[in-house]
Each structure stands twice: as C-alpha cells, then as structure tokens.
Amino acid sequence: MRSGSKAAVAISLGLFLAACSSVDTNTPSLVNTLAHRGSPGVVQYACATGLLDFATNGKAVNIYSNKTLCGQITTGISGPRGLAVDAQGNLYVVNAKTSSITEYAPPYTSPPVATFDDSGQNPWSVAACPGFIAVTNTTAKGHGPGSVTIFRNGQKTTLSDPNALLEYFVTCDSFGNLYTQAQTSDKSFVNEFQAGTGKVIELSHIHAAGSAGLEWEDGALWVASDIQQTITVWKAPFKTPVSSMTLAHSTGDRILSYAVSPGDTQLLVAEDGSVSGQHVWFYNLSGQRTGQLPGSLVSYGVSYSKDDQK
Questions:
Q1: pTM of this prediction?
Q2: Which one, of 225, 123, 220, lies nearest residue 177 by Cα?
Q3: Quick one: which of 96, 258, 105 has its CA closest to 169?
Q4: Cβ distance 160 to 146 under 8 Å?
C-alpha cells in the first residue's frame, strides 16, 4: 500500500517569495530555503522545527509557523479533508476525491511515505491510534451507510453500527478504543468501538447539535457541536460532562473542524461564517479568540504537528 513545468515552478517560487517578504530572515528558527522535491513542478519549502499548524485549503495542506505560511503539501493531495498526526509527527491526510489517506513524514517536503486505499468509501476523518489507522466514512459510494475503515498490520477491515446512517469524526484513546461522531436521520451521538474492533457501544447521551469533531486529550473525550459552537468534555464512564466551553463567535459561524494544542492551552478551529466568512482561528480555553491564520480558508481539517493526546 506504500506508495509539473518550469512555468509552474516559477509561479510557485514567486508566490513563495511574495508571501515571505515580511519574514525576518535572521530568525534562526525559520529555514528560508526552497527544496524542490517530489513531482516536477511542485515546489515545497522548509518550515521551522518547532510546533507547526496544518490546515487544508481544498487543494493542498498549508503549513504555518508562528501564524506565517511557510510551506504547502500538494503531492498526493486530492480534495483534502481530515488531518491527524501520530507520536512521531507523521501527518495523515484524508483525500476525498481519491478515497485514500496519504502519510507524510517530517519535515513534510517529500512525497507520501505511504498511501492507504479506502476505495468505495467517502472518507471524512482520520485518527492515528496505537497500532492502527482509523478512517470514518460518511457514506459508501452509491449512498450506502457510513462506516469506519481500520488499517492494521497491512490489513484492512471495516467497522459499522447498524443504527448509524453517517460516521463523521474519529479519535482514539491510549488503549486503542475508538470514538466516532455518528448520525441518524434525527440525532447525533458518539460511538465507542472497543479496542478498535467490531464491538460497538452507542453513547447516545453524548450528543451534539451537528458533528464538528472529536479529540481525546488527557484522559477525556472532547466533543464539538457546529450549531451550538460548544465543546463539551467527558470522562469515563461518560455519564455527565466534566466541563463545557462556548466559543465566542460571530453570528452565523459554525465549527468545521478543530484541534487541541499540546499541553491543552489553546484550540485551532476552522469555521465557516455566513457573515465573517471562512477562517481558521485560535481560541483560548475560555472560548475567546486570540488570533487567526492568514487569509480566507475553507478548511475541513486542522491539526498541530505534535499530539500529546494520550
């Protein structure tokens, strides 16, 4: 499963130089060099070695260092959606158009080191779990019900809940238990697949008005609602939430995806707003905006380059 022209290079180089014209070239943490790697005509460049932010833009995965665009992944990308990183910093990208997941190793300037085939499905989200990769499929091609594809030791298996029509977001804990945001025709709830196998437990009391993402952080499950603009935090046995936050947002904004930073100090949130437009914002854990990534981004996947979720 492992897997253009001089004019295009010139254009990409020009765009890069324009974007970096305001960057302090004396800053030692930012490598201001270009690396021509991968397919001909694709220019990719190196970023800082510290914490990076990833955000999809519909055609590529943008890479940011200190809120500055410093790189872009295009090779192997086709309709990017969900993102995830593992303990080694490898980045996993869901490609909706090719029904595949591509894996990139730091510093993300080379072609994919692996490609996972999810053909026949409409993949949405990905999680890097202990010993396996999990992918949620909203539906199957031909409008079949949603499912979860597991890639483990070179084998591919499928998990499903017969009561769920759609499977959206996915995360996992340190034991390999899998959690998904599932939907029926009239409600949204969380599914738990124990040890990433076929045994499913419907946590129907963990519900949200619209699926907007799951994260497992410090022994707790973080569940987002795109309509309510809230994130609730649950701990086993998941009877009642231990905390909740409401994001201070503009009227009409809704969460598309989000990620929790290492150390659980801030959130990276992609939003689609009927008034404010599409942006990726930083929030503190009080729900207040503290900054944003530059430009207008319709991003269905965001992530940090490090994950301490366990």
A1: 0.84
A2: 220
A3: 258
A4: yes
